[in-house]
Amino acid sequence: MSSGYLEMLPMSSVTLANQTHTGGTYATSASAVPLVVRTSAPALELPAGMVKWSHLEIIIEKGADATLASAQGFKAYVTWDAAGEDIAAGPTQTELSMVAGATDQAMASATLDISPSRPPDGEKSKAYVWFATNGFHTSSINTTGKRPIVKRCRLYWHSLSKG
Fold it and tell me: What is the tens place of the pLDDT at every residue in 97-130?
């Protein structure tokens, strides 16, 4: 059984647009987080089927001009396409709590435990994560310098076949 993960390109943080202070508003297509095969070894392709998605690993940082609220959280879903029209997993039914990470960052893991199959129009070894964040600023968040920034996003998987 093989295993691996899709991840954001290293050093390619994604600033989330269309976020609201109280949460619940998903990012626009311009700020969906693209996940691809990791660039360093072992770089395993995501199988088209017979695979289980384990979890998402997420680190989000506050914008440079933002002030973190007392708690941070998020909702998320995964699509096969950049337009967000071909759902693969989610959305989370409730907001997930995050814990403090490095300075100005919050982190969390979201359990998926699903076995999706890539549709014929899906892109090989690629998926997109869409976020709705909460608590990354204490007032208006949808302005330059205050928007949350996804620093890490990985989708872990393992093959269900023994070959």
Answer: 999 999 999 999 999 999 998 888 888 899 999 9
Nearest to residue 33, comparing CAs of 52, 16, 11, 51? 16
Q: How far is CA 30 from the centre of its chain?
A: 14
Would you call 31 helix, strand, or coil by DSSP? Answer: helix
pLDDT digits (tens, 9 = 90+) for 51-89: 999 999 999 999 888 888 889 999 999 999 988 889 999
- Domains located in the chain, CATH noted: 3-159 (2.60.120)
For residue 26, CA distances in Å to 11, 23, 157, 163 come to 23, 8, 24, 39
Pairing of strands 87-89, 96-97: unpaired
Residue type, 55: H
Rounded to an integer, what distance in angstroms lies between the CA atom of residue 14 and that of residue 89? 20
Give the phi and the psi of residue 31 in degrees, each rounded to 5.
-125, 25
